């Protein structure tokens, strides 16, 4: 029974990892389209030169630095499961810890979903802005969303890969990195073609749609992670109840 439950758990985590990688790929393609077309986009929309574009890139870097230094630690600290517990007995403590862990995971997934939606909305704004202030707002929003979503997703991939195959953790993380490179290869080709053919609004709309789309596999990953199989239910029900300490 324990072996069957373990196999069921691994299959569940394989599905979770597959959907998480799917979401990460879609988000990375959106982000890479934005990054690779940023300079040309600014020149076409505002006729900016090298100095103005350098100032914009510096602004993006400062926002990202603040998010990584201040915002991300606050978010990840909020998502940690609480220590200790007042439940009596080993079984009660295990149940309390499991509930706290599921709550922390749900919080992190909610943050990821919100950041994907923020990325999508600000990419739409980036493509359609006609003056500087909405444009700067969109650039700041994209920097915030990217610098929160990707670290959280990379941590989730590492955790899920460790649950799927601890002995092949390096290979699975390497595969995740290879998908990042696939996004970097495809994005300049797709983004430049759309920008040349359909204009600045279209490239922002495409990137924004991809970022919003990433919430769908993210939701599927959350559902797969929290779906308890029939085998696991049977094994849990067959375990003898521990006596209270």
Proportion of residues in extended strands: under 5%
Radius of gyration over all CA atoms, rounded: 22 Å
Shape: elongated
How many β-strand runs? 0
Major sheet description: none
Category from helices, strands and their pairing: mainly alpha
- The separation of the N and C termini measures 27 Å
Q: Indicate the mean pLDDT.
A: 83
Low-confidence stretches: 85-92
What is the count of helical runs? 8
Helix content: over 70%
Order of helices and strands: HHHHHHHH
Please specify the SSE layout and strand pairing.
Blueprint: H1 2-46, H2 50-78, H3 89-128, H4 132-164, H5 169-198, H6 200-213, H7 215-225, H8 230-238
Structure description:
This protein is an all-alpha fold and 245 residues long. 86% of the residues lie in helices and 0% in strands. The protein has eight helices and no strands. α1 packs antiparallel against α7 (215-225) and α4 (132-164) packs antiparallel against α5 (169-198). The radius of gyration is 22 Å and the shape is elongated. 28% of the residues are buried. Mean pLDDT is 83; it is low at 85-92.
């Amino acid at each position: 029974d324990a072996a069957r439950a373990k196999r069921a758990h691994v299959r569940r985590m394989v599905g979770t990892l597959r959907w998480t990688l799917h979401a990460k790929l879609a988000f990375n393609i959106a982000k890479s389209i934005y990054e690779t077309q940023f300079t040309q986009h600014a020149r076409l929309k505002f006729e900016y030169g090298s100095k103005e574009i350098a100032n914009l890139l510096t602004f993006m870097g400062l926002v990202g630095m603040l998010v990584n230094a201040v915002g991300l630690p606050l978010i990840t600290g909020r998502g940690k499961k609480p220590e200790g517990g007042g439940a009596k007995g080993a079984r009660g403590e295990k149940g309390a810890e499991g509930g706290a862990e599921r709550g922390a995971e749900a919080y992190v997934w909610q943050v990821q979903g919100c950041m994907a939606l923020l990325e999508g909305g600000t990419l739409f704004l980036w493509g359609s802005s006609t003056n500087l202030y909405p444009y700067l707002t969109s650039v700041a929003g994209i920097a915030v969303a990217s610098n929160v979503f990707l670290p959280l997703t990379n941590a989730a991939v590492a955790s899920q890969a460790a649950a799927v195959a601890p002995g092949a953790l390096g290979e699975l993380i390497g595969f995740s990195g290879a998908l990042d490179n696939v996004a970097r290869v495809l994005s300049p080709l797709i983004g430049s073609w759309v920008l040349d053919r359909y204009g600045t609004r279209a490239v922002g709309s495409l990137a924004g749609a991809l970022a919003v789309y990433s919430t769908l596999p993210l939701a599927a990953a959350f559902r797969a992670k929290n779906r308890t199989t029939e085998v696991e239910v049977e094994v849990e029900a067959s375990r003898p109840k521990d006596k209270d300490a």
